[in-house]
Each structure stands twice: as C-alpha cells, then as structure tokens.
C-alpha cells in the first residue's frame, strides 16, 4: 500500500491489539508503552478509545484483555466461511435437480463479489469465478441484495439516473427502472437477469439472510436463454428453497 494514505494511529492500534492478544490480562499501560515504543500519553488515548469501542477491556488490576466487539467481528469473519462451506454442501445437491451451475455472492457497494460456485459440466464455462466482480444492477444476484439496501444508501450508490456500465443491450440503463425492479424483488423474494449481464444467459437469484434478517449474500442459477422457459419455474423454486435453507443455517449458527 502507498504510505501516502497510511494512518499511523491505526497501525499503532493494531500493534496494541496484537500485544494484548498474545498476553491477555498481563500488560498494563506502562508495559505496552515500553514494549511498543509509544509514549504514555498517546498510549493512554489509544487505550481509552479502544475501551470505549469495546475493542479492549481494562481489568481491575489495570491490565488489558480483548473486548467483546473483537469477538463479534471475529465471529462474523468465520461465519462467512461457514456459509461458503454450507453452500457447497447444499448447492451440490440442488445443482443436480436443476442441472445448472449455482453461484454464491455478496454485495460490495454497487458490485457483486462472487464467493463460490457449484458447477455442472458444460461446454461453456461461466466467467463468474470466485473473486470476480460484476456491476450489481446488471445481475440477478445484485438485484436480490440491492432490494434490501436502505433508500438513502441506494441513492448514494446510484447518484446518477444513468446506470453504468451497460454490459449488453438488455442491461438496465436507468436508475428509475432499477428502483422499480427492486420493488418487485422485495414483493416476490427473488430477482431475474434476462441477458442483462451476458448475452445468451438468463438467471434467477434469491437473498440469504442472517439471524437478524439482514441480507448477507445471495445465490443464483444461470442457464442458456433457450433453456430458460422450460426451466424457469423449477430454477426459481429450487433457488428460493436453497436460499431459505442457507438462511435458516445462518440463524442457528
């Protein structure tokens, strides 16, 4: 990373957290100051701020341990991998019912980040490999997640009436059209992509929710356009059922 954008206070906070994690309930302010070469006044400010954020806890003997907020963040970090593992298990069955590839993704601002996929053998390989990003407005996955983004945030993500980029002649080009589609998604619980991301392919997607009801990911099934009419209802039903199972798993973990 370019040091031009480096934030020294964050680097110091990281060093403090590492030291506390290595010796919880053992180090006092003066110990941390000496060990890390950070003067006492700066260390006091760092620890006071982190304590207020529940990043650290000051024990009765003035030593420090890690706070509950880090436990929450750590749990969220590992839960995303748990979701991928569960997706692979569940989708490996569903893909044989639909006989099409199934994908898992999450929303990053106005883009879809692909996390995993369960693939059926095909002469044409989908380009949606894990790590690839696509504009959310052009995909069923994106619309399945954007539908539950709060309106002020949605307005920030799409500040202009013109949607960009336009991937195919069928890609939505106006924010107002996207907003109308998202209203339909909230009503139905699923989203379509009709050759909007890739010519010749159609897709259905449904959201995956956490225990508190928040949309944390989405799953989808893509297929050739000429197979769409025959498989559309089967794919919709199976994808919605799979999303529900994954959501229930999120609730119980």
From TrEMBL:
Give the Pfam families listed for this entry. Answer: HTH_IclR, IclR_C
What is any one GO biological process for this UniProt entry?
Answer: negative regulation of DNA-templated transcription
Occurrences of domain HTH iclR-type (ranges): 7-68
Keyword terms: DNA-binding, Transcription, Transcription regulation
User: What are the IclR-ED domain coordinates in residue numbering?
Assistant: 69-253
By its UniProt entry, which Gene3D superfamilies does this protein fall under? Answer: 3.30.450.40, Winged helix-like DNA-binding domain superfamily/Winged helix DNA-binding domain
What domain of life is recorded for the organism? Answer: Bacteria
Instruction: State the Gene Ontology terms under molecular function.
Output: DNA binding; DNA-binding transcription factor activity
Q: Which InterPro entries match?
A: GAF-like_dom_sf, HTH_MetabolicPath_Reg, Tscrpt_reg_IclR_C, Tscrpt_reg_IclR_N, WH-like_DNA-bd_sf, WH_DNA-bd_sf
What protein name is recorded for this chain? IclR family transcriptional regulator
User: What is the scientific name of the source organism?
Assistant: Paenibacillus tyrfis
């Amino acid at each position: 990373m370019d040091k031009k954008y480096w934030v020294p206070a964050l680097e110091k906070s990281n060093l403090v957290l590492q030291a506390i994690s290595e010796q919880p309930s053992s180090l006092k302010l003066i110990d941390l100051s000496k060990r890390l070469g950070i003067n006492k006044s700066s260390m006091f400010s760092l620890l006071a701020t982190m304590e207020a954020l529940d990043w650290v806890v000051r024990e009765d003997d003035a030593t420090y341990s890690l706070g509950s907020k880090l436990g929450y963040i750590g749990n969220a970090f590992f839960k995303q991998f748990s979701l991928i593992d569960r997706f692979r298990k569940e989708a490996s069955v569903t893909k044989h019912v639909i006989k099409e590839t199934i994908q898992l993704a999450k929303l990053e601002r106005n883009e879809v980040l692909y996390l995993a996929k369960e693939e059926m053998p095909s002469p044409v390989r989908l380009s949606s490999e894990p790590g690839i990003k696509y504009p959310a407005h052009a995909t069923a996955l994106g619309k399945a997640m954007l539908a539950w983004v709060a309106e002020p945030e949605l307005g920030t993500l799409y500040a202009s009436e013109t949607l960009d980029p336009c991937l195919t002649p069928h890609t939505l080009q106006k924010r107002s059209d996207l907003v109308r589609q998202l209203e339909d998604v909230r009503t139905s619980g699923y989203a379509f992509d009709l050759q909007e991301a890739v010519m010749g392919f159609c897709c259905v997607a449904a959201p995956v929710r956490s225990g508190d009801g928040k949309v944390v990911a989405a799953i989808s099934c893509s297929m050739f356009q000429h197979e769409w009419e025959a498989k559309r209802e089967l794919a919709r039903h199976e994808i919605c059922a799979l999303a529900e199972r994954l959501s229930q798993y999120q609730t119980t973990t």
